Amino acid sequence: MLSKFNAQCEPFPPPAATVSSTSRMQTNLCFLFDSDPNNHMPNYIPYRDDIETIDPDEQETYAKIIQTMTDGQHIAREKYGKSVRISHAKAHGLLKGELVVSDDLPPEFAQGLFQPGAKYPVVVRLASAPGEFTDDSKISTVRGMAIKVFNVEGPKLPPFEDTTTQDFVLDTGKQFITSGPKAFLQAFKPNAEIAPRLSDDVKGVVSTVARGTNAVLNMFGANSEKLDFYGHEKKHPMAESYYSQTPSRYGGYVAKLGVVPATPGLVELEQQKFDPQTPDALREATVAFFKSNPAEFNLVVQLNTDLEKMPIEDAMAPWSEEDSPYVPVARLVIPAQDAFGPARADVVDENFSFSPTHSLVAHRPLGGINRARLVAYTAMANLRRQENNRPTAEPASIDQVPA
Fold first, then answer.
1. Which residues of 181-196 are buried (b: 16+ CB within 10 A; e: fewer)?
2. Residue 126 included in any domain
3. What is the secondary structure of 236-250 as a DSSP string?
């Protein structure tokens, strides 16, 4: 396996065009096997059950987070006349596709559902991060990609032991905005309680200032994840890269995941100016793109090599890509389609929940932020759907997603 993989050097053929983010991903497997003259693998840290450090009062913090989210969701309900997601409320793409795992992966990367040659139907939800319906022409925020993988067999996390789905919840930016649950509670409280009451004009001013400040930081090789929340770079939604930001179990190892553009059409969008002029510009751009274009992304994995340099409990700490580069393990293949049809929106946007709790035990989310998510996501998703008289059962088949 190793010699064959080393000769191949990457699990997928390169796209027709070579570009910065994609080409770097394609050379990572070559780095793994060719950077060392003896082809020694990096020292990947094995997963163990005691790899997390749990604070004694975390349950109390989780309860406060859920209460803060509940209060924020009720404020949004008053504003919109229905309950909406407490985060990533406004979707701009609802897509059906397929996750295709590489035919040839080294054992360290052939973990969990990522078995060589495996194929899974998926539904992908693209959305802006805030828990409200912001005006795209005034506010540029962090964006998310949530992937629901169907037909996934194997032991699942409670209370979803009898389901066959696996969710991956990703955002733009490689690090989370806070280090742990307590810091998240302090940061999230004003966002949930105050932001929905502010006008989009006020938030637009904040967005412009934050974006300008971050642009200066980027000139010096720095970036603020907190400024990026309301000051995200204006970019076509299909030109974005998305990351788990927090670690998870990866079978016998520990990893972060990402999804990055792989095909030339997506890469070209990264170089083009994007200037949203309407309140739903992101949705309009996504629908226009998929009306006649397919898209492919690389799903990439970064394995942990050092628990001190790549901590489990500090979600703001960057993981060195020099020590452990992201490696492509699968392709996310999305054909041309109606990216936001009303029938599909009624099912996916209103009935579905995308949650780290929908997971194989082999991909269990790790760290304090994720432990809070495992509790809060389930509670808030059930509350939203119950208040809107929607079903709460996890879907059993991709066939439940309208064409």
1. bbbbbeebbebbeebb
2. yes
3. -GGG--EE--S-EEE
Q: Are 151 and 121 spatial neighbours (Cβ–Cβ below 8 Å)? A: yes
Number of separate domains in the chain: 1
**Listed range (36-40, 69-73, 379-383) with the worst mean pLDDT:** 36-40
Residue 295 tokens read as 């898209």
Query: How many Å apart are CA 344 and CA 351, to the nearest integer?
Result: 10
Question: What length does the chain have?
Answer: 403
Q: What is the CATH number of the domain that holds 227?
A: 2.40.180.10
pLDDT tens digits, one per residue of 342-381: 999 999 999 999 999 999 999 999 999 999 999 999 999 9
pLDDT one-digit tens code per residue, 292-338: 999 999 999 999 999 999 999 999 999 999 999 999 999 999 999 99
Instruction: Tell me if residue 322 falls in helix, strand or coil.
Output: coil
Question: pLDDT band at residue 207, thresholds of 50, 70 and 90?
Answer: very low
Confidence (pLDDT) at 191: 64
Q: Is 7 within the bounds of a domain?
A: no
| Half-sphere exposure at residue 235, Cβ-oriented, CA atoms within 13 angstroms | 21
Nearest to 352 by CA among 402, 399, 403, 390: 390
Q: What is the mean pLDDT of residues 145-167?
A: 98
Percent over 90 (pLDDT), the chain: 71
Domain that includes residue 91, residue range: 43-400
Q: Which two tokens stand for residue 319?
A: 């993981």
Whether a cis peptide bond, with omega within 30° of 0, leads into 311 is: no
SS3 sequence of 347-361: HHHHHCCCCCCCCEH
Condensed to tens digits (0 to 9), the pLDDT of residues 261-275 reads 999 989 889 889 899
**Alpha-helix residue ranges (DSSP H) falling in 35-170:** 58-80
- β-sheet bridge partners, residue 46: 253
Give residue 339's Cα distance to chain centre: 18
Q: Would 16 be classed as within a structural domain?
A: no
Per the structure block, which two tokens stand in for 29? 């497997």
CA-nearest of 343, 339, 304, 338 to 324 is 304
Q: Is residue 6 part of a domain?
A: no
Strands (E), 172-226: none
DSSP character string of 38-74: T-PPP-PPBP-TT-S---TTHHHHHHHHHHHHHHHHH
Nearest-angstrom CA–CA distance, 309 and 335:
39
Which 8-state DSSP code applies to residue 158?
A: T
